[in-house]
Structures are given as structure tokens and as C-alpha cells.
Design goal:
- The chain has 293 residues and is mainly alpha-helical.
- The protein contains twelve helices and four strands, in the order ααααβαβββααααααα.
- It has helices at residues 2-24, 27-33, 38-58, 60-68, 79-95, 128-133, 136-151, 154-185, 193-233, 235-248, 270-274, 281-290, and strands at 71-72, 101-105, 112-115, 123-127.
- It is elongated, with a radius of gyration of 22 Å.
């Protein structure tokens, strides 16, 4: 219910903000003269903006399982799998969420991710490389990190942010396209050849700017998940796990799921840093050492 209310409130807030911006700059009058229905444009932008994001979220578990070949542990086959399932269960209970599905995927890189549209029906998966390279306490810290993502509703929040930004991109790219087409070709309705070209170019530019906001939130949530992992498994264990990842320094097995994993490359600067979904490991370790738990 809270997720539904948050979704509805977010959509309403977007429509109010966009309406206010349009009226403030007199675009409502301009659009009316051009034969564009403001309400219809707002609705279309919101539907397509949020539709794609929420469809991706709803399919995230299915996509993750198939893209990475995740094997779900329905019945533990040995003591190691039993320990993994029970560790996730203990963290989930401590975090106040439902028991997630637990899976393992083949990859030499130490990595893990959590995904799913509902915090009580999520998926937590770890790589075979992570189980081989880390000791039990480090693995428990990684699991705590991922459980914290689920408990914080990070996947849903990221989807809402992406949906908001998509809505703005779709809405303003079409307004800009209309203005440019009317200015260049004098088309009364602003839907001539320049409209499509301008919309496509504007969506690329605005989409790139929007991605900076998405990546900024993604980095922020990693710090929060590190603190959560430290609370669930111990600060020293979480720091040890991050140090182990730093030593391994291997890329994610799939860039598609970088936002849900825990690994990241070394420190970078400039624009590349702004496009990072995860903060540099040195920064994460330093922040965890200084953070009150």
C-alpha cells in the first residue's frame, strides 16, 4: 500500500510541478496556439516516463535470473548452501523484511546483487567467485549490504527517480521540438521535419543529464547499504569485504545489473566519476570507518 501511495503521490507531484513551470513561462498559451493539449502531453509523458521504469522493475528478477544464469536455492544441496540461506534469513529477519529468494551464479568475480519490485519478495544472489574468495564473515557482510538495499526500498526508489526524470525528458523534449520547428519552418503546429530531429537530440542531451542524477542517488545508496551491512554483520566484517573487493578489482559480470551489485572500480575523476553507479571503494571504506552505527 505504501508503494502504491508513493507512486500516486509522485505522479501527482510531477503533474503539479510541470503545470506550474509551463504556466510560469507562458508555455500553456503557446502550446494552446500550436494546437497541443497540455494535459494530454503531461499524461503521455507520465505514462511513458514511468511505464518503462516500472516494467523494468517488475521484470528485474526474471531478467537477472536469465541474464546471469542465477540458480535459485529452493532446497539447499549441502551445508554451504544451507549456511547461505540461513544467513540471508537471519539478516532478513533483523531488517524486518520477508525472506528473499537466494541464488548463486557462476562468475569468477566476487559480486552480489539484490533486486525485485517488492521488499518482501526480493532476490539476493551471490557469485561463485565471491563464495570462493571471501570468508564467512565477509560473505555475511555482503549479504547484509544487499539485504539493506531491499529493506531501504532502493530498487523502488531508484525506479521512481528514473520515472520522474523520464517524464521531464519526454515532456520538455517535445516542447523544445515544437518551438524549434515553428521557428525554423513556420509550421503552425510545430510538427514538421525539425520536430522529430530536435526531440531525438534533446532526449539524448536531457537523458544524459538525468543519468547524472540517477548515478548520484545510486552512489548515495551504496554508502547507506554499507552502513546497513556493518550493522547486520559488524563494521570490521563489512570493511574486510570491501577490502577484499578492492584487492580483486574485477568488473561486474553484467553492466546491466551494476546498480544492484556491490563491486566497483578504482577512483576516477571528472565526468567519468559523475557517471559511476558506485563510489570508489577507498571512499566507501573511509566513510564506513567514520560512520556512526
Amino acid at each position: 500500500m505504501k508503494r502504491i501511495l508513493l507512486f500516486l503521490a509522485t505522479n501527482l507531484a510531477i503533474l503539479i510541478i510541470l503545470s506550474a513551470v509551463v504556466e510560469l513561462f507562458g508555455l500553456d498559451t503557446y502550446l494552446a496556439r500550436a494546437g497541443t493539449n497540455l494535459g494530454g502531453l503531461l499524461l503521455i509523458a507520465a505514462v511513458f516516463g514511468f511505464g518503462g521504469s516500472f516494467l523494468s522493475l517488475l521484470l528485474s528478477k526474471w531478467l537477472a535470473k536469465r541474464a546471469l544464469g542465477v540458480r535459485i536455492i529452493a532446497q539447499p544441496a549441502d551445508a554451504a548452501e544451507q549456511w547461505l540461506v540461513e544467513s540471508v534469513r537471519a539478516h532478513a529477519l533483523a531488517a524486518g523484511i520477508g525472506m528473499p529468494e537466494v541464488g548463486v551464479f557462476d562468475s569468477p568475480a566476487p559480486n552480489a546483487f539484490a533486486t525485485g519490485a517488492r521488499r518482501d519478495h526480493a532476490l539476493v544472489a551471490v557469485s561463485s567467485g565471491l563464495l570462493q574468495r571471501m570468508n564467512g564473515e565477509e560473505v555475511r557482510a555482503v549479504l547484509g549490504h544487499e539485504i539493506t538495499h531491499v529493506a531501504n526500498g532502493d530498487m523502488v526508489t531508484l525506479t521512481l527517480i528514473q520515472g520522474v526524470l523520464n517524464t521531464f525528458v519526454i515532456f520538455f523534449s517535445r516542447i523544445i521540438g515544437n518551438i524549434v520547428d515553428r521557428a525554423l519552418f513556420g509550421n503552425a503546429k510545430g510538427r514538421g521535419p525539425a520536430f522529430l530531429v530536435t526531440v531525438l537530440l534533446t532526449q539524448v542531451v536531457l537523458g544524459a543529464l538525468a543519468s547524472l542524477i540517477v548515478m548520484a542517488f545510486s552512489r548515495y545508496r551504496e554508502f547507506r547499504a554499507d552502513r546497513g551491512g556493518a550493522r547486520l554483520a559488524g563494521r570490521d566484517s563489512m570493511i574486510a569485504a570491501l577490502e577484499r573487493l578492492k584487492a580483486a578489482h574485477e568488473p561486474l559480470p553484467s553492466a546491466q545489473f551494476a546498480a544492484f551489485g556491490i563491486t566497483s572500480g578504482g577512483s576516477r575523476g571528472g565526468l567519468r566519476r559523475l557517471l559511476m553507479s558506485h563510489p570508489p571503494l577507498d571512499e566507501r571504506i573511509a566513510a564506513l570507518r567514520a560512520a556512526p552505527l
